[in-house]
Amino acid sequence: MKKTLIATLMIAALGSVAPVWADGITLALTGPYSGGSAPMGVSMRDGAKLAINEINANGGVDVGGKKQKITVIERDDEAKNERGALIAQELASMDGLTGVIGSANTGVVIAGDKYLQDKGIPKIITPAAGSAAMTQWRGKAPNGLSIFRFAAHDGIQTAMVVREAISRNYTKVALLCDSTNYGKSGHDDLLNQIKAQGGKLQVVTDDKFNIGDKDMSAQLLRAKAAGAQAVLVWGIGPELAAIANGKAKLGMKEPLIGGWTFSMSNYIDNAGKNGDGTLMPQTFIEEPVTPKADAFINSYRRNYDVKHIPSPVSAAQGYDAVLIFAAAIHQAGSTDPKKVVAALEDLQAPVPGVIATWNKPFSKWNPDDVNTHEAFTDAQTVMGMVKNGAVTFAHPEDKARLAKAAAGKKSK
Asked: What are phi and psi of 180, to 5 degrees?
């Protein structure tokens, strides 16, 4: 009884009185808007709101011949699993909710998405969440899944990380992953990719770190003593900068190669020059690759009064996710969640975004193939590198490839 009462009060504190909209589109934007994961959550939210503001400025989305504007609900999950679950319960109880965009932490997704799935409310997970965000549904939801993901999944990223290490003729690597669900999932994906790519890399040390850790000396010294030529890292928070700074203090020159989160401001700013040379997969780099990307970058900087986007990947994915959602609503001719899910699974018209022109990014849910609800392929992902406090292209030829993807020539 006591636990039930506490849970009820917590939901009420989040604002559980269900709003009802007689007309219009209501999207919830959820994510970590405070705490260590905030750069990705805030950037995703603000990128999404740019797209929403542009749509509303043009009268809204054409829904069955009538323009409807988008109303936004924001919820800060603080990257906490329990809060993420409460927020999902709250949103699932609302009348008139069209869909949800967001989440950046695997544990939050696992804790909360089941409530949205139970009600059939469409959600596009972006900008992140590890493999388990979708593999949890493998073999399940035979009657359909309302959860989609809009990010370069860990299978794509870890394959790129391993290929990058091999292409640089490294043979010995250290693994260093955080202890969150995201870190554990990435750790397993890295090992699977090392095996899948012929075992050309030998893992000489396999360590982890916890959220809040500020000293990685012990793990790095083990890697150095074992002869690691590179450190493969999977983590999500500001602790990543402690790795770069610790490596510099120990005089280690071995590069860091890891997940896309190395591009966030809380790594680049806190690592400073020690972050230079870090390599990571990226779906969007803050450079004017195309006129649309240039306009997006300038609009974000101007509207939010920043010199650089805290997490360019997150912002661009939030922006494009809204465009895809809007396209699905238009195609469905309805804000009925079930009809929106069906439209997301079979988008008929290409959706020009800042990352790519999206041609049928999703397909009908197949419980035996979670990729049916994954939007990204290798075509929209490149290797980035930190240089002089910003992320640029590790391989210049990839800039042309992303430009082609944005033009619709190499998207899925």
From this structure: -75, 175
Closest CA relative to residue 126, chosen from 295, 352, 302, 376: 376
Contact by Cβ (8 Å): 102, 45: yes
Provide the b/e sequence for 52-70 (b: ≥16 CB within 10 Å).
beebbeeebbebeeeebeb
Q: How many domains does the chain have?
A: 2
pTM of the model: 0.89
Bond preceding residue 127 cis, omega within 30 of 0: yes
Q: 306 lies in which domain range?
A: 2-152+290-376
State pLDDT tens for residues 108-137: 999 999 999 999 999 999 998 888 899 999
Residue range 161-177: average pLDDT? 98
**Do 60 and 38 sit in the same domain of this protein?**
yes
For residues 197 and 64, give the distance between their C-alpha atoms in angstroms, rounded to a whole number: 49
Same-domain check for residues 15 and 89 = yes
pLDDT in tens, 267-317: 999 999 999 999 999 999 999 999 999 999 999 999 999 999 999 999 999
Looking up residue 270, the CATH number of its domain turns out to be 3.40.50.2300
- The token pair at 378 is 């290798």
Provide φ and ψ at 359, rounded to 5°.
-105, 110
Cα 327 from Cα 350, distance rounded (Å):
9
Whole-angstrom distance, CA of residue 398 vs CA of residue 385: 12
Q: Are residues 45 and 170 in the same domain?
A: no
- CA-closest candidate to residue 306, choices 43, 84, 109, 8: 43
411 part of a folded domain? no
Cα–Cα distance between 333 and 172 in angstroms, integer?
A: 55
393 with 276, same domain: the answer is yes
Angle between helix 239-249 and 217-225 (nearest 10): 50
